[in-house]
Amino acid sequence: MIHIPNNNTNAFRGIHIFDTTLRDGEQAPGATLTLEQKMVLANQLVKLGVDVIEPGFPISSPGEFTAVKQISQQFQEVEICGFARAVFGDIDAAIRATQDAARRRIHVFLSSSDIHLQYQLRKTRAEVIQMTREVVAYAKQFVDRIEFTCMDATRSDMDFLIEMVETAIGEGASIINLPDTVGYALPEEYGNMFRRVREGARGGDTVEYSAHCHNDLGLAVANSLAAIQAGASQIEVTVNGVGERTGNCSLEELVMAIETRKSALSASTNIQPAHIYETSKMVSRAMHFPIAYNKPVVGRNAFQHESGIHQDGLLKNRSTYEIMNPEQLGIPRSMIILGKHSGRHALKHRIAQFGITLQDQELETVYHAFKEVADAQKIVTDDQLLRIVGQSVRQGQPLEAYTLVDLQVVAGTQRAHMASVTIRDEHQGTEQSYSGIGTGPLDAVIHCIQQAIPVAAQFDDLEIHSLSSGEGAHGEAIVTIIHNEESYRGTSMHQDILLASAQAYISACNQAVYEMHPGMDQEEETAAAREE
After folding, report:
1. Which among 514, 521, 511, 518 is positioned nearest to 489, based on CA atoms?
2. Domain of 312?
3. Count of structural domains within the chain
4. In which element (H, E) is residue 265 found?
5. Along the chain (532 residues), what's the average pLDDT of each consecutive run of 10 residues?
6. Partner of 168 for a Cys bridge, out of 49, 126, 173, 493, CB 3.0 to 4.6 A?
7. Are 458 and 483 in contact (CB under 8 A)?
């Protein structure tokens, strides 16, 4: 089918985003959240603009019940969904937990595939139809909006699935969810299932349809888009795609697919893209689930480029190799990664970010020295780059405003974490030592450095990556700081992770110092920074 772009935003069909990060996402092994974490994440999901939050499974534990209840009480601006098996006790718990919500629904699920009926439920089709009738009618007495899920719909007999949906609609279900519970379906199959149910079930055109896809074959987003094209108006997602096994349809991937291809899909959502990256980081930290480097939209490499051809194109016009603007997603701009595939244009651009301008011959000298280092390792970090420039064209002159001379840390299970650092002010030619304490070794180190460098930089984020294995393994530290509402990013690499983190932090601070006074020489920059 050929899609003709439609620029009339009024023609876009609204797709409701149902977030189940706090329920299905938390079912991922090791992803357990505390009540406090759930409250913080629920607040962030509201800020993000999701339409429905499924905060947990109320019957599963007292803690889950309390979380659903408190989220229902506090967040009146969003619809809250209480999750329940096709069991009266589950439904009662979901009703009680969500009773203070301004808008709520009860979500009841029951298996529809013969595999589940035979081996899990041990019930006949007739018994399952009767259960459907009873539980939907029971829930309808208390709540108007009932979502009914036919679990494992994609492996169900189509005639039986239609009969089950008809029964649920007949008893008052207003939202029908047809999940790909085990991530088995292909997009064409999944879309056709929605069309056949809508057309075949009595009352099928009077209810809303929802898609809930798992990612076992990597098709969760594709299947969800197929469901939208087949008439679904709600997609159930999790932040970062967390969830059972390989996870659920990823909120950020689905939303940005819709946003980027809005005209082709004639669809839109209420999600605020500027909060996507922040939300992704919060969920990753709370669940202790790292984000894959190549994760679409929010992964480390999603907007970073090492190829010289790509870097040259990006520096001339971002749209040459990027279909989304990372800054609109709340992602700090750091698109250039220096490695052996990088070219002169990218090298010159990164050096300029430290306030250093090179003449053509100087750039050529630096470029060849850079290539020798880049060939020996995966990436060239900021401190290495500045060292290369200083040794190659500045007669060994240090180019950083501040450098780390020495670092000592005292840590233990029954003692305070203390650190001392010696920082050299390269422009003044002086060294001074500082000491500090913190909640951990790195926190103590950062407190020391903040005393030394006259930039009131807020430590925002730290990424640590192993670049090799064994006793000689090196770690790469990537530190982001915030100064005057601007982000600065420094990198460093060392066998000692604390040392690498400290050097990366100083590198980021040096960039902030340079950008504060780009027109001054080095001595003037330092003097001005100290005055501030």
Report:
1. 511
2. 308-384
3. 3
4. helix 262-265
5. 42 95 94 95 98 97 97 98 98 98 98 97 98 98 98 98 98 98 98 98 97 98 98 98 96 97 96 96 93 88 65 67 80 68 80 82 88 79 80 71 91 84 89 92 91 80 74 79 82 87 89 66 46 46
6. 173
7. yes
